[in-house]
Amino acid sequence: MHRPAPDRAGTPLFQLHNHQLSYADQQGEKVVLADLSLCIHAGEKVALVGSSGSGKSTLLKLLRQQQPDSAYCPQHLGLVGPLSVFHNLYMGRLQRYGWRRNLRNLVWPSREQLQATAHLATELGLDAQLRRSVDRLSGGQQQRTALGRALYQQSPIFIGDEPVSSVDEFQADQLLGLINRAHATVVVALHDQTLALKHYERIIGLRGGRLVLDAPAATLTADELAAVYHAP
Amino acid sequence: MSAAFDTTAGRFRRVSLGLALVTAAALLLADIELVSSNPWFELSRIGLGLLTPDFFSTEALLASLLNTLAFALLGVAAANVIGLVLALFFKWRPLQLFCALIRAIHELFWALLFLQIFGLSTLTGLLAIAIPYTGIFAKVYAEILEESDQRPAELIPPGSDRLSLFLYTRIPLAFAHLRNYSLYRLECGIRSSAVLGFIGLPTLGFHLETAFSQGLYSQAAALLYLFFALIASLRWWMRGWLLPLYLCGALWWLPFDALLSFSTLQQFFGHDIVPAPLRGQPLLALDTLARFGHWLGGILQHQALPGVGNTLVLSLIAMVGSGLLTLLLFPLISTQFLRRPARLAGHLLLVVLRSIPELILAFVILLVTGPSMLPAIIALALHNGAIIGHLVGRYSDTLNLREDASHGLNRYLFEVLPRIYPQFLAFLLYRWEVIMRESAILGILGIHTLGFFIDSAFEELRFDRAVLLILITALLNMSLDQLARGLRQRLQLNANPQQANC
């Protein structure tokens, strides 16, 4: 996979000003995001941390709305089970081609598309599964397929919601490196604090829908990061 | 690059391709032609009739509407009660076979049989609906009761009597499901009841057939619209606490004047349906058996065989046609593809298509195309395509696609179609048996399926032949049901079958 041309570094890509998001249920008003302000520029590599229910997924969805062409890897993967790994990877580029070519590749994949995806599949450790149905793969293999679809899109921006939660630590480390090499701007929700500190330049922490941390990873200690998860 | 693709979707594709090839072969055997010299003329007249419905042309309109309703209410209610009781003993294998047999015989065939015993009377209509519906209710209710939560029943103190156990732990859990299903069956019952008019009972079908065959299309349109209104409004006027009132009303409205005499019964069972060569003969005599063999061979060769062949050919083509139509129609009501106003239009189209009974639809198309298998194929495909399209469309609403999923044709081909396909195939295979039942009955319109030979036998008063052919039809249906079940198991298709077998 060749590296896409990065956006001009420094252009603001995502901006939120005092953003408020809540919904009402039986127990009353539930705040999902409270008074959130942040700005992410092109070229930044950002990790989003916080315990479950802190609003990470909601924030990522908001960010995706601001840059709809970003490569996106949701938590529920969104794979099409009965189709092969090849087809699920190819889906990252559906919008690039006309319906005739898409229909043709659905029924009878072309040699060039197969070659193009085979390279990516090898990088993801899925080369042996390229022609197999996604519904017959393990959880880790499925997650790598979903990640592959996002990578195959070759967008300069990557947004991922726990994109490596089902693979082992060694692989997770490698895959996060792959994501960083393939995209100029990366925003990823992660629960692994060590990986977050290792791969990202900036760490944003959420607790109960509020921004409680926004700091360069280089100046951050493990204790400061762990504090995000505990109520003050 | 040389390894073959091994995907779930690929397996379904091969099955579909196989079906398409068999259907292509069936098309070569089928008698399909446009006989009518000027189909557009008749079509435009029907279209004009649909635009100018005449609600005051016949005073029989209201009476036939009430008749249709009364037959359906009483027939379905009786079947409901008996079916529920049978469902409790459904583990007993002979009962399963018995229920399979009585539901494999179409309402119209039952009606033709009872017509010989009770004449054109209320009892004929009621039994024709109640008997096959009892078989269906028994099977489906047994399934519903089995699927409901069994754990509460296991927690009841041992020694409690079985009836209390049943009333406390089984019925309440399954009640909503049972009620929904019987309401849905009532809708089917109204359609069946209307169709009974085609053999002379005073329901909507009788007046529809008369109006259509005399070319009184405005009058026919009024009848059709009333029929739609009746079915569409079912869930508003059908309330549990009103049911006793409706049933009493139906009993009061329908005339019970059947002349049931013992000698008629004796004549029918003791003579008419006994194979002609065996009547009054010593059963074990060699020449009796030889003549019986000759009689049986003649019917099998000249009637049953071509009848079975044509029924199979028609049902296969109609099933694949329904499938193709389903794939075109379901996006019209799916939240994955259309916004609300457009979906409402789609729903309206599907409701209209699936409300018209196949027989009536085929009869109307026959007026346009002339007699061949074509009207039957179109009618079956439209009706069943709309029903499966409705089910598949609703299923597609439950899919959870990723936020950045593609749109339009890409969404259809890559996201939705592969996901709905197993469910779609399951519904289609469930429906095959129903399509087959209808294919046989459409013979009444002159297409040479089994219904044609059965109808002719009744007309010639050869009841022995008619009963034999009806039994063959039922056996064909039961074997097809087994075949479809085997296919579904091999393909590992599990779908909720209950909505698919109306």
Principal-axis shape of chain B = globular
- Major beta-sheet overview of chain A: 6 strands, mixed
Give the N-terminus to C-terminus distance of chain B in angstroms: 48 Å
CA-based gyration radius of chain B: 24 Å
Q: What's the CATH first level of the largest domain in chain B?
A: Mainly Alpha
How many helices of chain A? The count is 8
Description of the structure:
The complex is a heterodimer of chains A (232) and B (502). Chain A has 232 residues and is of the alpha/beta class. Chain A has two domains: 10-70 and 156-232, 3-Layer(aba) Sandwich (Rossmann fold); 83-154, no CATH class. Helix content of chain A is 34%, strand content 25%. Chain A contains eight helices and eight strands. Chain A has helices spanning 56-66, 85-90, 99-107, 111-123, 139-152, 169-182, 193-199, 222-226; strands at 12-25, 28-41, 45-49, 71-73, 157-161, 185-189, 202-207, 210-216. Chain A has a six-stranded mixed beta sheet, with helices on both faces. In chain A, strands 1-2 form a two-stranded antiparallel ribbon. The longest helix of chain A is centred in the middle third of the chain and has 14 residues, at 139-152. Mean pLDDT of chain A is 88; it is low at 1-7. Chain B is mainly alpha-helical and 502 residues long. Chain B folds into two domains: 10-52 and 281-502, MetI-like (MetI-like fold), CATH 1.10.3720.10; 55-254, MetI-like fold. Chain B has helices at 8-29, 39-51, 60-88, 93-104, 107-118, 122-147, 151-155, 162-195, 204-213, 217-232, 234-237, 243-253, 262-272, 286-329, 340-355, 358-369, 374-397, 408-441, 450-459, 463-490. The A-B interface holds A 61, 64, 68, 72, 74, 76-78, 80-84, 86-87, 91, 94-95, 99, 102-103, 106, 109, 111, 114-115, 118, 131-133, 135-136 and B 1, 3-10, 12, 400-406, 408-410, 413-415, 418-419, 421-422.
